[in-house]
């Protein structure tokens, strides 16, 4: 057994263990960690296959961006609030099992019927070396033979971006105008700028407090408890009587 | 498999790791001294001559402190998260070329640990994995300040990583490669414009990309004025609020090592790395990295911290469009052959 096979087996085992951890872990953040572990090991397997670009992109896109977003959301939800992690619903378990076995069979069928050593393509070792490496070869193939697919993917992503913006758009027209103004404003100053309503409403006076005029017209507000101020913004205009 | 070369690589990596750790310790001393000068203070000057033993004293202090785990922490994740941050930090230095190969005892010793053909992407990937140290540490502390610090940090690092990556695309287009060796080789050529003979450093052909890279790199390493995750006035200490002793020092070490690695990377990508007048060599790279490290301290002493929405607005509304503009312009120049000077 060569060293490469040994390393591959190790990576594959850890990857499968990580994937198992995703399913078994009771805490969603632990599941996400398992998924990252699995993805990293898959990236390492790509490295063994000399697909350096694919490996790095796998880490940047899947481990670095997609899972971070998942962790982001799950971190803010307490695990007890997720019924899926506690109630063992039999229908779900059966459905998951059936789908999992179906997928496994599909993959097995694909592996068994199609031999992995197919007909060699145009990219021989010499051809790859001639363009300067497999990353360059990948780029040339993608942007010539698969130009249509690349552009369709770009279009799909653009549509998704526009869709997200439309979904997040406020309903009321006045709020939309305010949001549009905010988009074009780069606020580097006091927040009471373009993105605020014209005149902030006068804040209520503290119910039981006293207002004493201090030195240069700024009032000193004495209140019985600090809670009176918690609902109020940190800035705003105090109107002296 | 070539065992000899593998062993030599490990040896170079070991030396590099130790040099980085030593540099990191003295980076804290450098920062405190320079910051003190800028603020009309003296800085650490009691421990050894010029306070030079201060980092060692700090290290002993941190190692001797109690390692506290909060009662409602996610124990295993809490213990592992700082190790993750610390272990990933020095890996970026593995792809930085420190010079031509040395010949010692009949062996060829390359002055870089690994020459991989996607070196720059590898460094970016390390950055995106490094986020987990922060986000998991903040989550596992079981503390709202930590969680908020971790969320902020993650959002910030993801946004600025995009800018960082896109700002480098111009360099990739000009060099035609992701490999730092190739990028360096391109920069060692000479650029002749009329009577002027200039080095072909990418700071000259990609000034916009350089500025974007510098801003994004400061944000990526969570340093002032982008140190929102640890904004002590509002979040106590951000994601490492609950950490103490040597686990805290792991986060601290990781931050400084990241600074050093980013400075080395900036020096290699934009100002020619080991290329310089008189004689090429590692000293030029060290000098350039030192300038960038000084720049970090300078920024910290000069600029106040950004407000959070300003920080995200800056990344998405200003830096990202500028980076895309830079890619478009560079692509057009390359396409029309003006870049083939």
Provide an overview of this structure:
- Helices cover 58% and strands 3% of the residues of chain A.
- Chain A is built from 8 helices and 2 strands, in the order H-H-H-H-H-H-H-H-E-E.
- A two-stranded antiparallel sheet of chain A has the order 1-2.
- In chain A, helix 1 runs antiparallel to helix 2 and helix 2 (28-48) packs antiparallel against helix 3 (52-75).
- In chain B, 65% of the residues lie in helices and 4% in strands.
- Chain B has 12 helices and 4 strands.
- By secondary structure, chain B is mainly α.
- The longest helix of chain B is centred in the N-terminal third of the chain and has 36 residues, at 3-38.
- In chain B, helix 8 runs antiparallel to helix 12 (308-335).
- Chain B starts with a helix and ends in a 6-residue tail after the last helix.
- Chain B has one domain.
- In chain B, strand 1 (102-104) and strand 2 (107-109) form a beta hairpin.
- The model of chain B has no long low-confidence stretch (mean pLDDT 82).
- Classes of the chains: A mainly alpha (241), B mainly alpha (341).
- At the A-B interface, helix 2, helix 3 and helix 6 of A face helix 4, helix 5 and helix 12 of B.
């Amino acid at each position: 057994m060569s060293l490469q096979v040994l390393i591959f087996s190790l990576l594959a085992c850890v990857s499968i263990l990580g994937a198992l951890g995703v399913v078994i872990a009771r805490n969603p953040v632990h599941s996400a960690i398992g998924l990252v572990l699995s993805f990293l090991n898959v990236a390492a397997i790509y490295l063994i296959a000399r697909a350096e670009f694919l490996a790095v992109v796998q880490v940047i896109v899947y481990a670095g961006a997609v899972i971070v977003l998942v962790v982001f959301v799950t971190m803010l939800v307490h695990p007890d609030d997720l019924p899926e992690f506690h109630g063992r619903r039999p229908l779900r378990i059966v459905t998951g099992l059936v789908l999992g076995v179906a997928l496994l069979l599909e993959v097995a069928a694909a592996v068994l019927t199609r031999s992995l050593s197919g007909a060699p393509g145009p990219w021989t070792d010499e051809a790859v070396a001639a363009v300067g490496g497999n990353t360059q070869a990948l780029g040339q193939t993608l942007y010539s033979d698969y130009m249509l697919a690349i552009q369709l993917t770009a279009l799909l992503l653009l549509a998704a971006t526009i869709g997200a913006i439309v979904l997040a758009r406020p309903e009321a027209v006045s709020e939309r105008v305010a949001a549009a103004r905010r988009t074009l404003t780069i606020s580097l100053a006091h927040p009471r700028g373009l993105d605020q309503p014209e005149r902030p409403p006068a804040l209520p006076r503290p119910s039981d407090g006293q207002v004493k005029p201090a030195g240069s017209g700024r009032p000193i507000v004495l209140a019985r408890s600090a809670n009176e101020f918690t609902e109020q913004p940190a800035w705003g205009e105090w109107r002296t009587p | 498999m070539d065992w000899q070369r593998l062993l030599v690589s490990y040896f170079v990596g070991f030396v590099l790791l130790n040099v980085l750790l030593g540099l990191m310790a003295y980076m804290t001393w450098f920062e405190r001294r320079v910051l003190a000068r800028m603020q009309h203070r003296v800085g650490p000057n009691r421990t050894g001559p010029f306070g030079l033993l201060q980092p060692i004293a700090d290290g002993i202090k941190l190692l001797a402190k109690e390692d506290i785990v909060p009662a409602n922490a996610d124990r295993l994740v809490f213990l592992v998260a700082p190790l993750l941050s610390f272990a990933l930090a020095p890996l970026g230095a593995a792809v930085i070329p420190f010079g031509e190969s040395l010949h010692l005892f009949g062996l060829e010793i390359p002055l870089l640990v690994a020459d991989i053909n996607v070196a720059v992407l590898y460094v970016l990937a390390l950055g995106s994995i490094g986020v987990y140290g922060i986000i998991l540490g903040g989550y596992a502390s079981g503390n709202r300040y930590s969680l908020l610090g971790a969320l902020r940090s993650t959002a910030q690092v993801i946004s600025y990583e995009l800018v960082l990556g896109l700002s480098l695309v111009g360099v990739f287009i000009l060099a035609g490669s992701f490999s730092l060796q190739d990028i360096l080789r391109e920069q060692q050529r000479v650029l002749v414009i009329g009577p002027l003979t200039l080095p072909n450093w990418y700071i000259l052909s990609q000034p916009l990309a350089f500025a974007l890279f510098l801003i994004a790199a400061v944000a990526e390493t969570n340093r002032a004025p982008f140190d929102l995750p640890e904004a002590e006035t509002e979040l106590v200490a951000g994601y490492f609020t609950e950490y103490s002793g040597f686990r805290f020092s792991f986060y601290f070490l990781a931050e400084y090592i990241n600074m050093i690695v980013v400075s080395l990377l900036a020096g290699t990508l934009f100002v020619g790395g080991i290329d310089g007048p008189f004689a090429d060599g590692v000293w030029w790279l060290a000098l350039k990295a030192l300038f960038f490290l000084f720049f970090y301290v300078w920024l910290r002493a000069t600029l106040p911290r950004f407000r959070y929405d300003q920080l995200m607005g800056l990344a998405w509304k200003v830096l990202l469009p500028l980076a895309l503009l830079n890619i478009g312009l560079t692509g057009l120049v390359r396409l029309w052959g003006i870049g083939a000077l």
